[in-house]
Design a protein that fits this description.
By secondary structure, this protein is α+β, with helices and mostly antiparallel strands. It has one domain. Helix content is 39%, strand content 26%.
């Protein structure tokens, strides 16, 4: 397991998060959701943004996501390419494998942008 994944990928409990990104016009879009990890938060946010017709979301990997945990308040940033690399990486704990499987089912091909 990589250092970043160990640090941010395995949060023990569900946390309320705000996930945001800026579109190509510089407009910030954000959603509030509950997630157990940084990567799960980004995956769930991608699904929500994708389903919102007011958000021009282009999934090809150049967006930077800002994840703010609400309790305690923390902020993390990662790109779509970083998320996709994590989603494609095999293995991890049983909880990681289950989360990845859930997100792959939710996102389909969108979750593995090249």
């Amino acid at each position: 397991m990589g250092e970043q994944e160990a640090k941010y990928g395995n949060l023990a409990r569900v946390k309320r998060c705000r996930v945001s990104f800026k579109d190509s016009d510089g407009i910030e879009h954000a959603v509030e959701l509950d997630a157990r990890s940084l990567y799960e938060a980004v995956g769930l946010a991608i699904d929500r943004f994708r389903r919102c017709e007011q958000v021009p979301y282009d999934p090809r990997g150049m967006h930077e996501f800002i994840v703010e945990s609400r309790e305690p308040s923390t902020e993390h940033r990662l790109t779509r390419k970083m998320f996709d690399a994590w989603l494609r990486r095999p293995g991890g704990s049983p909880a990681d494998v289950a989360r990845k499987s859930k997100l792959k089912g939710l996102l389909g091909d969108v979750g593995v942008a090249e």
